[in-house]
Amino acid sequence: MDSHPTNKLFTPKTLVEVPSRKNTEPNSDGTKLLYNETESLFLVDGSQVKYWKVMDIATGESTRAPVDEKAYEARWLPEEPNIIIALVPCFDNSGNTHVIVYDIQKPESKWYAGRIYSKVTTLSVKCLKDGRFAFVVYGDVGINGELQNTKNYRKPTCTGLVYDIDEVRYLNQYIKPNQRRSIFYSILTKELKPEGISWKLLGGLHNALANTDLEPMAYTISEGGIAFIAGDRGEADGGWPLTPKDMRFAPNGKTLYVTAEEHARVSLYKIDLQLRTKPEMLFRGGYVDSIHLLGKDGRQLLITSSTFVDGSLYSIVNTDEGHESRVLSSVTGHGARLGITMSQFSEIYFKGSGDHNVHAWMVKPSHFDESRKYPLAILVHGGPVSSWKDQWNLGNHFAMYAEQGYIVVAPNIAGSTGFGMEFQNDQRLTLVAIRDSFGGRPYDDLVKCMDYLEKNPNIDINNAVMIGESYGGYMVNWVQGHALGRRFKAMVCVSGIFDLAVYWLESDGCNTADIRYFFSGSEILWENYEMLQRFNPARPDLLPNWKTPMLIVHGDKDYRTPVTGAIAAFRTLQNLGTPSRLLLYPDEGHGNSKLANILQRHREVLAWINKYTGIAEEEVVPREDELESKIREKGYLGPDWGHVDHLKDVSEANRW
């Protein structure tokens, strides 16, 4: 067995137990944050608990909000800095929804403002000039154009679904024929009565798109009504090479704040709409998830983001000159609570196929020793129009592999986003980099990557593994049939593609437009069969080459890359006598969504690659003396993610 030490803290179990924070929103006066926190209880029964919490922006301290735990949406009421409105499933399991209002200064009080006879989502509320509130949600539309409760809808005794168009499945579910969603609205009022305050929805919900065939993709509320997007989006002829992801107007309407991806990060930019100057960067580092105005003057923004070492990061950014920023909260203490640091992560560039340079992340173990060689783990991202970015990644966290004793390299191969339009695509969305080269230029980049890494004195190039998911899984299968596949001791294919031609007919997301996106020639598959076969891992001349031990991971409800491809690949390996294993999830779709399954998958993957690289397989539990030393040195946190001083003794910390 390999004698490389492994990190005693950052294991798969530690990774999935890091709390997640979502649905973050500041109140109207910029003094408090509302957010939803999920914690895992693998120490108890493997379940999850979710809490709504309120953070004091001045101190960074959080307390439980007086919001029902089952509330699936909650937000502050505008102009009411202490009032929260939430959507809560009715307790009778009817599929209906309670609208409940809470006052954080009076935790014992709550008001049932109304009952909606369906499940609704995407709540938005705006204060109107008369002091009332516009209340807007998404909901399912019935045949009569009114809100429909699909749970209580009387189901026929037969179960067949009839389709006249090819939109049949999406990700992990079937699309119900003729099911539509619309925007529904009402008015929320605050009434002052002798017995106290009362909050009420006036009347029922009204369909904003009644008597139309429109189906909205997004909406916002203005003083004059509801603005929404429906139909195809146009394309601007602007000169900015980046593509905005999220955006927010300043209160004066003259400035726009946007996020955009560039060089494996998603940063925050400021655009002066009057001067039409070049966008100015306000915040760079990691992946900015969302932008929120903090207070009413627009001089500060709240940014939610993540990095390789920050599972959830809250920062406050000044929009004036200087653009100073300060960290409000990091759920992982910038990695200190996990025993990892950003110093382990570096960026490299190597010459790829053609004349372009390829970016890659390189991650070393925290216990890295310059005098030693380490096994290599190559990770291939999905997409292919995607990238490896500096962000928290529960499904593929580079440091999890590095802490096992690997040097991890994650290349942003041809087709990756954020590295210039020519590297990914031109402005007409024709993929220059990989069009008619689905397994060409990306494969060549991987070959060049291995050649480049062979010169690294700390990498044992003859002890390498490859892991890929989705398109990355396709690439693992493609590499198996070629010479590059023999350079790996083991491979892992997650949600991959086996037979490319069959995939284009079976996948949920593949239609004529998608095929044109990647391949020239006829849009009819059998008329373009030669092109598809050119990059097909299941080609008869390639399958006999599948000799590298491989683990295949797939979800039975995966309708993006159907599970039949995984079974076919596994059977191929078995028939060839190649060491192989199939990890199948009957209840999962395209990737794992359940934390217990994510944990199992990580453990199975590590056990598989460690077996063939010679690294110890066990998930090491620290000795008490080692843990006590680390706690004193760095102040690691315990199971409640509060300060370790709250723990009774070291043995309690040892159980995380």
UniProtKB/TrEMBL annotation:
<dbReference type="GO" id="GO:0004185">
    <property type="term" value="F:serine-type carboxypeptidase activity"/>
</dbReference>
<dbReference type="Pfam" id="PF00326">
    <property type="entry name" value="Peptidase_S9"/>
</dbReference>
<keyword id="KW-0720">Serine protease</keyword>
<dbReference type="InterPro" id="IPR018202">
    <property type="entry name" value="Ser_caboxypep_ser_AS"/>
</dbReference>
<feature type="domain" description="Peptidase S9 prolyl oligopeptidase catalytic">
    <location>
        <begin position="394"/>
        <end position="614"/>
    </location>
</feature>
<keyword id="KW-0732">Signal</keyword>
<dbReference type="InterPro" id="IPR001375">
    <property type="entry name" value="Peptidase_S9_cat"/>
</dbReference>
<dbReference type="GO" id="GO:0004252">
    <property type="term" value="F:serine-type endopeptidase activity"/>
</dbReference>
<keyword id="KW-0378">Hydrolase</keyword>
<dbReference type="GO" id="GO:0006508">
    <property type="term" value="P:proteolysis"/>
</dbReference>
<keyword id="KW-0645">Protease</keyword>
<comment type="similarity">
    <text>Belongs to the peptidase S9C family.</text>
</comment>
<dbReference type="InterPro" id="IPR029058">
    <property type="entry name" value="AB_hydrolase_fold"/>
</dbReference>
<protein>
    <recommendedName>
        <fullName>Dipeptidyl-peptidase V</fullName>
    </recommendedName>
</protein>
